[in-house]
Amino acid sequence: MIGTDAQPNETTSAAVVLADEVTRVYGEGDTAVHALHGVSVEVDTGQLTAVMGPSGSGKSTLMHILAGLDRPTTGSVRIDDIEITTLGDDDLTKLRRRHIGFIFQFFNLLPMLTARENVLLPLTIAGRQVDPAYFDELIARVGLTDRLSHRPAELSGGQQQRVAIARALVSRPTVVFADEPTGNLDSRTSAEILDLLRQSVEEYGQTTVMVTHDARAAAMADRVLFLADGRIVKETGRISQHEILQMIDTLDLQ
Ligand SMILES: Nc1ncnc2c1ncn2[C@@H]1O[C@H](COP(=O)(O)OP(=O)(O)OP(=O)(O)O)[C@@H](O)[C@H]1O
Fold first, then answer.
1. Which Gene3D superfamilies is this protein grouped with (predicted)?
2. Which residue's CA is the closest to the ligand 1 atom numbered 26?
3. What lines the ligand 1 site, CB under 6 Å?
4. Which one of 25, 34, 61 would you pick to mutate in the ligand 1 pocket, going by the greatest count of ligand atoms within 8 A of its CB?
């Protein structure tokens, strides 16, 4: 049980995800790749945090470790005051179900399920009931009310990502991780999806971490972390798209 293995934190903090000196080495010996070199991050509650950086800088590795999808080589990760690096696989799976929502670049919907079934899947798997009023409100918010009986193949890319957003939010997770959520969408649809993510932060206080290459996406964030060669090289509060592009240029993060 998660409850039994959980290590309560002695100090209280606004951070719902806390990584301390995380390293990740892939492989061994001469071919070892050091993807993260002692990264420490605090993700504050109710905020949208963007993670930017060049290809290969370690963004996906960091996100997977923060979300409990991968384990660090050394270092500590806490989600909602639970140290996850020492949890067994079953407890980690339970923790992900309870605390984490995911949004992926390629939507990752199940093709044989309708939009409604895809949205409800995290609750179905966890054996939990949906609050019907919340479900209706969420579906209206993401604009899927008249698409609930469609299967993914019958939906546009933007509509599929809306299903994925509703699926991530339906269990009211502690934190949503979005990996390049606009990476596979055109510019107008990307803007709509970013608006929805921003709204979920404003309206539901949904803590969200988004990995992105897109300066326009990062400009919607309350906080931007810049990664290079497996290290955080810069952290800022909310800044404009222009300032982000300048920062990328100054830090030579192309
Ligand atoms: N499974 C793996 N085995 C070996 N090396 C890996 C593995 N996954 C990632 N790497 C390496 O770790 C480093 C960081 O990769 P990562 O995918 O985290 O970067 P990224 O910033 O997300 O890149 P991109 O923007 O291209 O997705 C890279 O050098 C990559 O080649």
1. P-loop containing nucleotide triphosphate hydrolases
2. 55
3. 26-27, 33, 35, 53, 55-61
4. 61
Q: What's the Rg (C-alpha) of the chain?
A: 18
pLDDT tens digits along 124-154:
998 999 999 999 999 999 999 999 999 999 9
- Neighbouring residues of 27: CB distance < 8 A, sequence distance ≥ 6: 33
CA of 1 to the centre of ligand 1 (A): 32
**Domains of the chain with bracketed CATH:** 45-67+88-250 (3.40.50.300)
Interface predicted TM-score (ipTM) of this complex, two decimals = 0.97
- What's the CA-to-centroid distance between 81 and ligand 1, angstroms? 28
Long-range contacts of residues 144-149, Cβ cutoff 8 Å, at least 24 apart: 144/115, 144/119, 147/115, 148/114, 148/115, 148/116, 148/119, 149/114, 149/115, 149/116
Residue of the CA atom closest to atom 11 of ligand 1: 35
Model-level pTM? 0.91
CA distance 6 to 83: 7
- Atom number in ligand 1 closest to CA 227: 21
Residue type, 138: L
pLDDT 10s digits, 195-222:
999 999 999 999 999 999 999 999 999 9
Q: Which two tokens stand for residue 71?
A: 């384990």
Q: Are 24 and 61 in contact (CB under 8 A)?
A: yes
